[in-house]
Amino acid sequence: MSTPAPGDPSDLSPRGQRRRAQLLEALEALLDDRPLAEIEIDDITRRAGITRSGFYFYFPGKSAAVAALIDGVRDGILNLGVDWYDPEAPDGPAQIEVAIRNSVAFWREHASLLVAMMDAAAVDEETRADWDAMVTHLAATFAEKFSRDPIASAQLARAGVAVDEFARLLLDSSVGVMERDVRSIVARGTPEPGLVAAMLHLWQVAVWPPAERA
Asked: What is the pTM of this model?
């Protein structure tokens, strides 16, 4: 059996997958205590109970481990609203409520990692490209959903607003609010009060005005 490439979990044994996951869990746990720049590989291996050489079996360096964590978060964010993203799924207002609640809970669960990811995106071109690609993908799924929704598409057409531009603006606003929320958690240990209700109101009023649903 060939040795897997560092950072590639596809050929790992179940034990190897568990050890790789332990290293990533240790790194994310350390992010709760200190900035990414202050975390060393030895810190990660001590926390995970795995040798330094063991770390290098799975990752070529700390940045690769961070990238693996970011991939997991990106996949988690994309999967949160998979039912709502389905262009054939009915009842947008009810589905978006579930998607928003799940999204806020996920961001809060991974607050330290998301703050580290956004900080890295501000200075690292590759991380910024990954983040932008994720947001662009989400905006495209929103635009498709709005285009197929009779209420959303009709009210946007009446306003003369392009669906794709509206979807990106709404998403950027939501991401900005959730970034403020996770930064509050990291800095003060408390989330933004009333965030879920405010976001839900914004989406429901912007996309499905009550008068249109009556």
From this structure: 0.77
Domain of 44: which CATH number? 1.10.10.60
Write the single-letter amino acid at 36.
L
Reduced to 3 states, what is the DSSP secondary structure of residue 114? helix
Per-residue pLDDT tens over the stretch 39-63 = 999 999 999 999 999 999 999 998 8
Look at residue 8 and tell me if it is in a domain.
no
- Boundaries of domain holding 164: 69-213
Q: Do the Cβ atoms of 70 and 130 come closer than 8 Å? A: yes
On whether the CB atoms of residues 209 and 155 are closer than 8 A, the answer is yes
Cα separation of 77 and 53, whole Å? 32
d(CA 188, CA 147) in angstroms, rounded, equals: 40
Over residues 81-120, the pLDDT tens digits come to 655 656 566 666 777 888 888 889 999 999 988 998 888 8
